[in-house]
Design a protein that fits this description.
About 40% of the residues are buried. It is elongated, with a radius of gyration of 32 Å. The strands form four sheets. It has an eight-stranded mixed sheet with strand order 11-13-12-14-15-16-17-18, with helices on both faces. A six-stranded mixed sheet has the order 1-2-7-6-5-3. Helix content is about 40%, strand content about 15%. The longest helix is centred in the C-terminal third of the chain and has 22 residues. By secondary structure, the protein is an alpha/beta fold.
Length: about 650
């Protein structure tokens, strides 16, 4: 064979690389396949394939502007939809590597094209948001909103429209807009993009992928005239929000109109787009972490125990979200030497359940735990009734349309007392004479007497969950450290003033009046086994028709009847009238344990299920919780 004939054959062989097969780590391959503009600085495998098919891979590396123009010119109604998706990804990559003045243009073009692919395309060009290509384009749509919000944060706090021009000449006007289940336009002082932050301290992070950009928004301060604003945290509300930009069709107009909406994912985690139900991106853990982390007042647990007067200045029921007349109030009551922070894990995990976060609103009671138990019961009852009057008088005029209470430790005693009727029993436990025969006639003294020793159930309470309740006392109160703590507590001024007035009257009349008006014990003394306060409260019973559930720790040791959570023995926490009793293999803080929180979740779902059955609602409803297994640690009673 001549050299003239051999040369073409050699050239043909040398044109292709050698083909081989080799084994790889599947995790590495999976990681490579998931590489894209959202996770790295290089395009996805599919976009690289599009560039190669169009002979643009080298052009993209050397002159990306030219590559974008060629690709955009090729993308039309007849080209594969993957090419349009590739164009969106390359626009986002180019935006993130461009000068700030050019970022708006690239992000705007990416936003418009991603929006049209996901939400406006014809059946031939429409990308389903859950398909592989759709998931990427959805993420790129969210990333485009993120890039524009960082450049124009006023979208969250202002009502003014924003005009933008894309890289390919697209013109849009974005206007903050109202929608169902959305925050009011311009209602946020500040916002933080959830993808830019991570929380620590909460065991679980509850978040979900979907359409839109998940945010933490700090609500603006509310007008003093709004009654419900009295019950919002003074340092601000940090709420979950999801930013979505919907763009109208061009319809021949040079400028397309767009709506910027901040959806409240505590109300709903999905939206209706032309008849399609589309899930939203959401994060409920990060707003809670912000609420705790950025609270300038710190944790008042120790101050509330030893210096009650200082915490009385901020005592009250606080809403963790703006009041909604549609949602059931869920009120958390903390225990001794504690604060609402003790509920952080429970609130975080319960909010992670869409049925619970969309149907319950979370409230927390903060109070000085060193004060006498009866005094704190009176304060909670007064606060609760005042709050119900403030927020929605008409709704709560209906008896039984109301509240679920969850208490821990001493907070369980307070919560249980909200459905008890004292009659004359509490007064007679401490006094021999009648209230009208009291030596104290000042109006403020008589108010204190009536509030503390005479009470009736709060009618709007529908269910009570009691965790580690020391209903018959705790032996820790009599231990040396309990005695030491008791001696360090300063009684509230309102009570000491009454005692001072009794002393003045006693001196003036030379009579032993103090014996007829004994001092109330502080909270630690009141928790001693056999204390008059606990004995009389335990005998009162509770309002019929209000289910009580108990959650009790046994430290995982078994021997139920003789068990203890390390602070409160079982015989003190057990209630015969409870409709269910869950035993958690943990110590006193069962509200931290996953099984304790799971039991709360079961009860709240049961509450919704029964409520919806009673109201004969139509449509989807929460599943009825499964009955306990024969060997379950939960005891359900008829």
């Amino acid at each position: 064979m001549t050299s003239a004939k051999i040369l073409p054959i050699l050239l043909l062989v040398s044109c292709g690389a050698a083909v081989s097969v080799h084994e790889v780590d599947p995790r590495h391959k999976l990681s490579f396949n998931r590489q894209n503009a959202l996770t790295s600085t290089v395009p996805s495998k599919n976009t690289v394939k599009v560039l190669r098919e169009m002979d643009l891979d080298l052009t993209w590396r050397k002159d990306p502007f030219t590559a974008l123009k060629i690709l955009r010119k090729d993308v039309n109604d007849f080209s594969p939809v993957e090419r349009d998706a590739a164009l969106v990804e390359l626009l986002v990559l180019q935006a993130e590597g461009s000068w700030p003045t050019l970022q708006d243009r690239f992000y705007t073009s990416a936003l418009v094209r991603a929006h049209d692919l996901l939400l406006m395309g014809t059946s031939q060009r429409h990308l389903h948001p859950d398909a592989d290509a759709g998931l990427l384009v959805r993420g790129l749509y969210n990333a485009s909103i993120s890039g524009l919000l960082k450049r124009h944060p006023r979208l969250c706090s202002s009502l003014e429209p924003l005009q933008l021009v894309g890289w390919f000449g697209e013109r849009i006007t974005i206007t903050p807009s109202e929608k169902e289940n959305a925050w009011e336009p311009g209602s946020l002082d500040r916002f933080w993009i959830c993808n830019d932050y991570a929380q620590s301290g909460l065991k679980n992070t509850h978040e979900g992928n979907g359409l839109g950009l998940a945010l933490v928004g700090k609500r603006k301060k509310f007008a003093d005239a709004a009654m419900e604003a009295r019950h919002y945290p003074r340092f601000g509300m940090y709420q979950p929000a999801t930013a979505v930009i919907g763009i109208d069709p061009a319809d021949g107009h040079e400028v397309r109109q767009a709506r910027f909406v901040l959806y409240n994912t505590l109300e709903s985690g999905q939206i209706d787009v032309d008849g399609d139900i589309v899930p939203l991106a959401w994060d409920t853990s990060l707003p809670l972490a912000f609420t705790i982390y950025l609270n300038p007042e710190g944790d008042p647990a120790t101050t509330g125990l030893f210096h009650p007067d200082e915490v009385e200045l901020i005592e009250g029921i606080y809403m963790l979200e703006p009041y909604s007349p549609r949602k059931i109030p869920l009120l958390f009551v903390h225990g001794l030497w504690s604060s609402p922070r003790t509920w952080r894990e429970a609130i975080n995990d319960l909010r992670g359940d869409p049925w619970i976060r969309e149907n319950f609103q979370f409230w927390a009671y903060l109070y000085p735990t060193g004060s006498p138990i009866l005094y704190n019961i009176a304060r909670l009852r007064k606060r609760l009734r005042k709050m119900l009057t403030d927020v929605d008088h008409q709704r709560f005029d209906l008896q039984g349309d109301g509240i679920v209470l969850i208490g821990h430790s001493m907070g369980s005693i307070l919560a249980r007392a909200m459905i008890q009727d004292s009659g004359d029993s509490v007064w007679n436990t401490f006094f021999d004479d009648k209230p009208e025969d009291s030596v104290l006639h000042a109006a403020e003294d008589m108010d204190l007497i009536r509030e503390t020793f005479f009470f009736t159930p709060v009618e709007q309470i529908e269910r009570v969950i009691l965790c580690s309740g020391p209903f018959r006392g705790s032996v820790d109160s009599t231990a040396w450290y309990g005695r030491l703590g008791s001696n360090l507590i300063n009684m509230p001024t309102r009570i000491t003033k009454v005692e001072q007035r009794v002393k003045v009257i006693e001196d003036a009349e030379s009579a032993d009046i103090a014996a007829r008006f004994p001092s109330l014990p502080n909270s630690i003394d009141g928790l001693e086994p056999g204390s008059p306060t606990l004995m009389v409260l335990d005998k009162l019973g509770h309002k019929k028709g209000v289910p009580i559930h108990t959650i009790i720790g046994d430290q995982g040791k078994g021997d139920l009847e003789n068990s203890s959570d390390g602070v409160v023995p079982y015989w003190s926490s057990h209630l015969e009238e409870a409709v269910s009793e869950a035993i958690v293999p943990y110590g006193h803080s069962v509200q931290f344990h996953p099984l304790g929180i799971l039991e709360m979740r079961r009860i709240l779902r049961l509450h919704l299920h029964e409520k919806w059955q009673k109201e004969q609602r139509t449509g989807p409803a929460p599943e009825a919780p499964a009955a306990p297994e024969p060997d379950s640690t939960r005891k359900d009673r008829p």
